[in-house]
Amino acid sequence: MQRITYGQLDTFCTLQSSSPNDLRAVTKKISQLVAESWLPKGEEIRKIFLSRNSKKILKMFKKKGIDIDFFGPSLKISIDTDTFTGYLEETRDNEPVFNLVISYPPKPSEFNLSDKELKEWVENDDSNQFVPDNLYIPVTF
């Protein structure tokens, strides 16, 4: 399997940066959803991520307004609980063609990441900020 960098995919998809489907905006929304799942009211989101069921995760994305339709039906979602950085890779069997690996490590301690910081990231609507300030909040790329 070959990992695809953010830059390669951004070029491949030729998405406009102002579009809600911009790859950077989509990956930010996924990071925000992971952060939301770590908050006290995020149990249902957490259960879906930890189910590792690609179809359930894709359904949740759609419900939460995370549009990854630019991949078409050729996308699989996987969860990696051992990292803070996700990635996209081509699959060997080409069905589906892409595997989006979402970083979902255990929630860091309050010492490293407070609920206040999580809420701030979840509510961040700055269209120029695509990654969280706190390094303990996972990113997709």
Short structural summary:
This protein has about 140 residues and is α+β, with helices and mostly antiparallel strands. It is built from 5 helices and 4 strands, in the order βααααβββα. A 4-stranded mixed sheet has the order 1-3-4-2.
Describe this protein's structure:
- The protein is an alpha+beta fold and 141 residues long.
- It has one domain.
- Helices cover 35% and strands 13% of the residues.
- It is built from five helices and four strands, in the order E-H-H-H-H-E-E-E-H.
- Strands 1-3-4-2 form a four-stranded mixed β-sheet.
- Helix 2 crosses helix 3 and helix 2 runs antiparallel to helix 5.
Poorly predicted runs are 14-18
Number of helices: 5
Order of helices and strands: EHHHHEEEH
Q: Work out the helicity level.
A: 25-40%
The coarse overall form would be: globular
Intertermini distance = 17 Å
Number of domains: 1
Described by strand count, sense and barrel closure, the largest sheet is: 4 strands, mixed
**Rg computed from alpha carbons, rounded to a whole number of angstroms:** 14 Å
Mean pLDDT: 85
Q: Give the beta-strand count.
A: 4
Q: Descriptors for this entry?
A:
alpha+beta, four-stranded mixed sheet, 35% helix, single chain, 141 residues
Question: What's the SSE blueprint?
Answer:
Layout: E1 3-4, H1 6-13, H2 23-37, H3 43-51, H4 54-63, E2 75-80, E3 87-90, E4 98-103, H5 115-122
Parallel strand pairs: 2-4
Antiparallel strand pairs: 1-3, 3-4
